[in-house]
Amino acid sequence: MPDTHRFGDDTLTATVSADGAELHSIRDAAGREWLWQAGPEWPRRAPILFPIVGRLPGDTLHHAGQAHRLTQHGFARDGRFGWTSRDAASCALHLSDDAATREAFPFAFSLAVNWTVRDGTLACTVTVSNPGDSPLPFSLGAHPAFAWPLPGSASPLGHRLSFPGLEATSLSARRLTGGLLDAAESIPLMDGTLPLHPDLFAADAIVLPGFPGRRLHYAAPDGAALEMEWEGYGDLGLWSKPGAPFLCLEPWCGTAAPLGWNGDFLEKPGVSILAPGAVREFRWMVKISAP
Fold this sequence. Notes:
Layout: E1 4-8, E2 12-17, E3 23-28, E4 48-49, E5 60-63, E6 66-69, E7 82-87, E8 90-96, H1 99-104, E9 110-118, E10 121-129, E11 136-138, E12 140-142, E13 145-147, E14 160-162, E15 170-177, E16 180-188, E17 193-195, E18 206-208, E19 215-219, E20 225-231, E21 235-239, E22 246-253, E23 272-274, E24 279-289
Antiparallel strand pairs: 1-2, 2-3, 4-12, 5-6, 7-8, 8-9, 9-10, 10-24, 11-23, 12-22, 13-22, 14-17, 14-19, 15-16, 18-21, 19-20, 20-24, 21-22
């Protein structure tokens, strides 16, 4: 049986697993599930992506003349986190480097994940620390998959995304080839909103590097909606599989390697570098509105 913790308040409850520090459930006061519950289309729910987001060429990290096998989205999502604390409204977990992680990623790191529910808002705070004596290069991403259609909606048709505070007529996106960043694409918005339909993801994820917004609104035509905000993350990914009943809303710090790049990981485009002893914090939050 999975080692999980359930917590929340009168309006929202969440469940988190020690495996990957992964969110397993978000339920409203009526008991309706807002998070994708895994399945044949995609076996995960809300993995934490670390120390890479996306892919490296050949699933190989190069550093200091050595090659290390590091597969898509890194190893944190498959790691066994230790519990730091658990109570009625929150939980905290921790993962740090060991002999196994250093085979794939030759850097010291500490990853602390704190989940809380307060006033009907679920928040995930990830703190990346460098306990080593050399720079720590990394990327970090959230990958929660929400129900599509949203609870209470009979059909996925008519769902939409909007980006409060973002004045734009289109989104500047990149597409993926073999998991690597490829061609640029402009995705038009209609009155500031992105109508959602399966064809959007026929060419895999929509990657929005350097995304200027820090909020989004995901809504169904009948009133069900969620608000998502984030801090510290500067990129955004949107993903589903055509016809699958989920939508991933993914604040990222970093993206997949660009097609044609294959250098030292310290020089990877978009990688973050944390100095010895330094700490960096990232947070995303979601609030639901039930119909």
